[in-house]
């Protein structure tokens, strides 16, 4: 996808990008300073509506809050999705502050502290267990509080998913319980009184290949079907993971959602309905829900030429949007889509390199990219900034002020 595709998705008027219906300059004036992140509520709703229309009606949609925990985003999505998945005590509290029922909040991730586990048990949150140590802490918390904890086992599958930005299953992993160990763990749980609702399998993230995702989901159902034979009660929760990717560069092709949905219809209406009639089948998405609804806006502070190369120095940088700099899991750095937000109808006229205000050559937001001639005070916009932006970046580095975030 090209920057012009992203401009078209947001809309533009009189040469300015629009966000939530507002011209960018007016939005910047309303925010009061740059840099800032802006998330378009309309695009967020459109993505949820698209998913609802394509996916099986029985399939529940869970928001993986780690992708973007901004309170306004979480509050908005809590009214649009069926569940929220959290990965820390603070995220759990943010989810519990929404209208989402506690039993519709799941808590996954390795290294949950005893205090976090106790709080989750007390609140009635579903704990997705990643190890036998976590299991023992859940049992202890339940006994101490006089409550019956509800859990699911996160399973490290015996297969890997190719084509994922980050592999989170297959081989040795810090995530989940190895599939071959699950039967023994279930026997151990049977003596504790803990309520096991089912299983969670998450094999990888940021995948743009529909066929690979469909294969992983099918293999997940086969794996859970085998593991369910060792559970002394019906499976009531089956989290298929997610891993849907979004296109970050011009070479990336968007995920074929219709193809993925076709496979999910076959699974949900076929083997899942037959084998697990009491189960809530769950699709857990973060980046795919919020990534394309967000932009990062930063202002040009300086324009300089060094030995024939033109630099635009902006007031933001990798301390706010680390992923665009290439330092968040990219083996080879590639440019995110970038435009001059107040000149989107002007033809690109020069090759420039956009750098931030930090004292490191790693602070690179766009390398040798074609842009309209940009001057001091122009607004540089980086697209695909709705997920793993601010909270996945080293905000405290060099002591610059944090950026604002707005949902419009």
Automatic annotation (TrEMBL):
Keyword set, alphabetical order: Pyridoxal phosphate
Required co-factors: pyridoxal 5'-phosphate
Species annotation: Microbacterium terregens
Top-level taxon of origin: Bacteria
Start and end residues of each Orn/DAP/Arg decarboxylase 2 N-terminal domain: 44-290
Protein's name according to its UniProt entry: Pyridoxal-dependent decarboxylase, exosortase A system-associated
UniProt-listed InterPro entries: Ala_racemase/Decarboxylase_C, DCO2ase_PEP1, De-COase2_CS, De-COase2_N, Orn/DAP/Arg_de-COase, PLP-binding_barrel
Signal peptide: none
Keyword Isomerase annotated: no
């Amino acid at each position: 996808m090209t920057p012009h595709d992203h401009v078209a998705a947001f809309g533009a008027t009189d040469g300015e990008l629009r966000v939530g219906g507002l011209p960018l300059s007016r939005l910047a004036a309303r925010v009061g300073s740059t840099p800032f992140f802006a998330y378009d509520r309309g695009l967020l709703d459109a993505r949820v509506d698209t998913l609802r229309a394509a996916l099986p009606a029985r399939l529940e949609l869970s928001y993986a809050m780690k992708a973007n925990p901004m309170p306004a985003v979480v509050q908005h999505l809590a009214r649009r999705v069926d569940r929220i998945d959290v990965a820390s005590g603070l995220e759990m509290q943010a989810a519990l502050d929404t209208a989402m029922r506690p039993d519709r909040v799941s808590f996954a991730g390795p290294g949950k502290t005893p205090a976090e586990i106790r709080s989750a048990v007390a609140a009635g949150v579903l704990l997705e267990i990643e190890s036998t140590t976590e299991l023992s802490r859940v049992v202890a918390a339940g006994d101490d509080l006089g409550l019956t904890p509800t859990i699911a086992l996160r399973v490290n599958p015996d297969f890997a998913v190719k084509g994922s930005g980050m592999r989170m299953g297959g081989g040795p992993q810090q995530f989940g319980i190895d599939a071959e160990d699950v039967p023994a763990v279930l026997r151990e749980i049977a003596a504790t009184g803990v309520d096991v609702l089912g299983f969670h399998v998450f094999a990888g993230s940021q995948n743009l290949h529909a066929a690979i995702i469909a294969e992983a989901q099918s293999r997940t159902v086969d794996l859970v079907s085998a593991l369910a034979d060792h559970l002394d009660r019906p499976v009531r929760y089956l989290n298929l993971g997610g891993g849907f990717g979004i296109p970050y560069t011009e070479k990336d092709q968007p995920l074929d959602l219709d193809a993925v949905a076709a496979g999910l219809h076959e699974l949900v209406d076929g083997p899942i309905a037959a084998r697990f009639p009491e189960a809530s089948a769950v699709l857990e998405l973060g980046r795919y829900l919020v990534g394309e609804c967000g932009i990062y806006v930063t202002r040009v502070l300086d324009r300089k030429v060094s030995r024939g190369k033109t630099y635009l120095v902006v007031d933001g940088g990798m301390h706010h949007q680390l992923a665009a700099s290439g330092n968040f899991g990219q083996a080879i750095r590639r440019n995110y889509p970038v435009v001059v937000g107040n000149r989107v109808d002007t033809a690109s006229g020069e090759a420039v390199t956009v750098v931030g205000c930090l004292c490191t050559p790693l602070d690179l937001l766009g390398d040798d990219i074609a842009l309209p001639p940009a001057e001091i005070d122009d607004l540089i916009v980086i697209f695909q900034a709705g997920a793993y932006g601010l909270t996945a970046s080293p905000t405290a580095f060099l002591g610059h002020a944090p950026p604002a975030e707005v949902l419009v």
